[in-house]
Amino acid sequence: MSALRKGIATVSLSGLLPEKLATIAAAGFDGVEIFDNDLIASPLHPSEVAARCADLGLTVDLFQPVRDVEGVPPEGFRRVLHRLERKFEIAQQLGAPVVLACSNVSPDAVDGPALRAAQLHRIGELAQEHGLVVAYEALAWGRHVNRVWQSWTAVQDADHLAVTLAVDTFHLLARGDDAAALDGIPGDRIGFLQVADAPMLDMNVLEWSRHFRCFPGQGTLDVAGVVAATLAAGYAGPVSLEVFSDVVRQAPPTVTARDAMRSLLFLEDQLTGALPAVAAQEAAFVELAAPPDDPQVKGTLEALGFRLAGVHRTKPVTWWRNGGASLVLNGQETGHGRPQALGLVAPSVAAVQTRAAALDWPQLQRTRGADESALPGITAPSGVHVFVSAPAGAPDDWRSDFRADTSLGDSGWLGLDHVGITVPPDRLDEETAFYRILLGLRPGSLQEFIQPHGRLQSRTLRPASGGLRIVLNVSQGDGASAGARGITQLAFGCADAAREVGRLRAAGVALMPVPDNYYDDLDAAFDLDPQFLGLLRDHRLLYDADARGGELLHAYTMPCEDGFFVEILERRGGYDGYGARNTHVRLAAQAAA
Amino acid sequence: MSALRKGIATVSLSGLLPEKLATIAAAGFDGVEIFDNDLIASPLHPSEVAARCADLGLTVDLFQPVRDVEGVPPEGFRRVLHRLERKFEIAQQLGAPVVLACSNVSPDAVDGPALRAAQLHRIGELAQEHGLVVAYEALAWGRHVNRVWQSWTAVQDADHLAVTLAVDTFHLLARGDDAAALDGIPGDRIGFLQVADAPMLDMNVLEWSRHFRCFPGQGTLDVAGVVAATLAAGYAGPVSLEVFSDVVRQAPPTVTARDAMRSLLFLEDQLTGALPAVAAQEAAFVELAAPPDDPQVKGTLEALGFRLAGVHRTKPVTWWRNGGASLVLNGQETGHGRPQALGLVAPSVAAVQTRAAALDWPQLQRTRGADESALPGITAPSGVHVFVSAPAGAPDDWRSDFRADTSLGDSGWLGLDHVGITVPPDRLDEETAFYRILLGLRPGSLQEFIQPHGRLQSRTLRPASGGLRIVLNVSQGDGASAGARGITQLAFGCADAAREVGRLRAAGVALMPVPDNYYDDLDAAFDLDPQFLGLLRDHRLLYDADARGGELLHAYTMPCEDGFFVEILERRGGYDGYGARNTHVRLAAQAAA
Predict the structure, then answer these.
(1) Where does a divalent metal cation bind (chains A, B) (predicted)?
(2) What's the CA gap between B219 and B214, in Å, rounded?
(3) Can you tell me the mean pLDDT for A62-89?
């Protein structure tokens, strides 16, 4: 397969038309769809827009949309032709070879195949006179034509070469169809292909489309399947993004354009496997920005049970370990002991670098000494640096850069269970795409929690295999840690939560208080053995159980001023969640802190 | 009818439990529903909560909710009884006489009337042992019980005095039922009444409930009808607000509590007509904060065609008039010539004062000279002051405070067509309630527009009769006028828009540019007479037409730095809209300014 011709509709970006075109070109797109309202509101004449695009190296692939053009009561069709003639002239001036026509949404639309065919045929004649092709699209909320098979039937009935089918992944998939709906449609009858993804939401499809579309890889629709089917049919035109959402409308166009280009590169990779596959598997370490000899940070780490495990061979960097959990103190960074980077095991390291370069994710420039492991660093949209290590023992294992203290035993915590990263509401899609597209993690659905002063949304990301768990959090409202950003939570797994919280308390670590009422609720909800309930109550442990007998025991430290906190958790019997039933208790305690 | 017993659920407010209780008491509520999660997360023992409420003068009306208690597979019912016994003990400690039980939402719920009846009967026995009553509620998304007739059938079948019906206006109305669904249900079998309103939205009812509930008077559900039917049946318990939404979760609890209390006073007034009716009819004037002799402001007014029409008898206030449009310059206020107050004709003035006092809308304290008209001023949530005048010629007509220049003719503009007021997203419900509850205006549905850097939502408010039009705007995103607040638009009606924009240009008023492309689109869309299109193009007028032949011709001034602008419009043939098709052109021009 040759490289996709990559396009995007101007409606997908915020801003004014000249800025949009420049931003689209700078992001590396081949072509553009001109959205009529962008043109109407612009002082640029269509021929000036055409010249501007040519200067920028962009083809004008489509002019869109014309609406309510077929199924029109016959007495009104002359007005439609007048309207189309004017718009076709503008398409000519723009140099757009294709005009998108949406299926009629008017309550007055007439549902007659013969009338529709005759009107589309006449429209085809008019388009042909202007040297144009019309691509007819079944809007998911069209009055009579809202499924792709209906629009394809209409195109066949129209029986005119200038009337072609428009395929839009959102409209097709939103109505529950899939790639099979395109079976038997010849590619040369498909006039245009628009792509958009979306999260699964049970709501009016028009509102869903207006507010929640996103770029391929950010949602859950099988965009790649529909695109693959369209290409397999022989369609050779551009693959063009048409995405609008509450997020995109407010995001800077440069951010959106980069995000959009990455999504098409991801789509291309899904279709061709051109990029090397990556599957992040495990958390390796968390890096804190602190001088290795900072007494306060050292004191905190020691209280948590971490011990100095190694010293970097060439840099002012130390490695601290509590059993299987590793922290790294980096004295080259400033950040008051806050976590700022995450080390992951993700074979292969070279593949991650190749993907990051191809997908335009910025790589950190760091000096690398002779014999040091590669450990490339890539910055996520949240600002968190992600370092990629080979597995233990392999070349490029991050540990090989340290002179390890071999006397340190392996007892202690099991490892880093999950990492909580907080992002602003309008960056969640982009952060999700980072872990999904670059590192091969799979996003879960969005969970929502009430906070005392707002709401919290969470989405987990996990690999197909491996223990890595990343939790993305969005906090809305003006709560205590409303401004928290980046890594805000480190959750460590242990084999005996009661023993660990006892040890932490003895070491002077301030743990989050849990109200007595909580234990009365546990008693009500789970009918626990009184002795076990007493253990939980005595240790102020939170508890959850799943339907299969799995159990979670966990506790939190009090948050720092900037909202950062540590969790200790014990999973029993295959418990696979995060204690969602207890989140409101944590949020209330944090708000009270 | 005696006064309603007014209650509210703690889940309706943001914050932590002690703060919620204090805020609820301060707003004047009689009682409170304790939401279980608020209690679980609180260090206060239930008996301490009871004492706190007693100290605050609040009755604890309800403890809520217990979930998934009926239709439970028999082998699991023992666990349910254990859970209920614990929760009933807590209700006793709280002093709550009623516990709310929601219909089962579990996919495993069993759909058998006999099992449901037997389990509810057993629950009734347990409740009675604790001196409690259970109120059983049909959640709109219950697995088998989701309509009020189903829950009433279950209550009858349970055949136990301690099992009663819970009526929730949201759940009842959201499923398309209305007050008639309560026909024949005796009031003494209704154990609790919860009230919430909502805007009409076509979406999953659970998401609708979670994110978009609002207080009565802020939405479009017939809350008053259901409450009236419940009271008519003989229900004598509290009327209790249970409202959660994305707005309420983030709003300060004091704001929410005041809003909530106003909504119950409004509801009470709808039921009893206890407060005097008010119907604002016309715009009287707009007040600008500026010294009467400010040369810049005077220059602008003169360029717009306003002339000095009168001088206040006692204050440094002048009246400027352009035909039927009046502006007032108030030198006692500071605000750089910005509009800050709106005068309305709303009979009777005394009635508005009575309503404002009863509904806790703050009245401005202003000195009133002997023989001056009453002209009470009330501050809307947006900060806009609304002054209320009697009609022309009546006592308390605002004009009677001025020594008028009787030589000034009546030619000029027709009047103030509409006023645009911009509010933050989280204050739209409250601002809507101000005009609806206090002044009797009727809200329209929410319209949405794309802005170059975000989105704009608009809602109109109009009286049942009279020409007053208020447009509330919410701007999201960081566009040019993102921080604009208060009165941001004054739209004046005229008889000949082309003549007026010609006159304004000649007077040096900077009007908003309209691109040539816009006129090509007008030609395409409306197939206008070429001469008329030429007139529109020459005068750079915007245009719209409705299906009945009504037409709008309009133009805008360039916005000030803070986003304020003036519109001149000509309505022809009964055109009743606001030119929504042109809003994107205005927003683009304003973004480019």
Answers:
(1) 137, 168, 194, 242
(2) 6
(3) 97
DSSP per-residue letters across A267-333: HHHHHH--SPP----EEEEEEEES-TT-HHHHHHHHHHT-EEEEEESSSSEEEEEETTEEEEEETTS
Q: Are the beta carbons of B246 and A39 separated by less than 8 Å? A: no
> pTM for this one?
0.92
Q: Is A403 helix (H, G, I), strand (E, B) or coil?
A: strand
Report how far apart, in Å, the C-alpha atoms of A66 and of each of A8, A99, A136, B479, B524 are. Answer: 18, 7, 10, 28, 11
Chain B partners of A588 at a C-beta cutoff of 8 Å? 16, 41-42
Can you give the pLDDT at residue A437? 93
Predicted local distance difference test score (pLDDT) of residue A479: 60
Q: For every residue of A479-518, which 3-state class applies, written as one string? A: CCCCCCCEEEEEEEECCCHHHHHHHHHHCCCCECCCCHHH
pLDDT score recorded for residue A293: 86
Considering the segment(s) B6-272 as one domain, its CATH architecture is: Alpha-Beta Barrel (3.20)
Is A428-483+493-592 in the same CATH topology as A282-404? yes
pLDDT at position A1 is 56
Token pair for residue B268? 């009470």
Top-tier CATH class for B418-592? alpha beta
B516 lies within 8 A of chain A by CB: yes
Q: Report domain A428-483+493-592's class.
A: alpha beta
Say whether residue A249 is in contact with chain B using an 8 A CB cutoff.
yes
Domain range summary for chain A, segments of one domain joined by + = 6-272, 282-404, 428-483+493-592
Indicate the length of chain A as a whole number.
Answer: 593
Measured in degrees and rounded to the nearest 5, phi and psi for residue A477 equal 115, 175
A190 phi and psi angles, rounded to 5 deg = -95, 115
Nearest to B203 among A37, A207, A450 (CB): A207
CA distance A469 to A489: 12
Q: Side chain identity at B314, as an amino acid letter? A: T
Architecture of domain B282-404: Roll (3.10)
Q: Which among B168, B99, B183 has a CA at the least distance from the CA of B138?
A: B168
Asked if B367 and B302 touch (Cβ cutoff 8 Å), the reply is no
Of A454, A524, A584, nearest to B41 by CB-CB distance is: A584
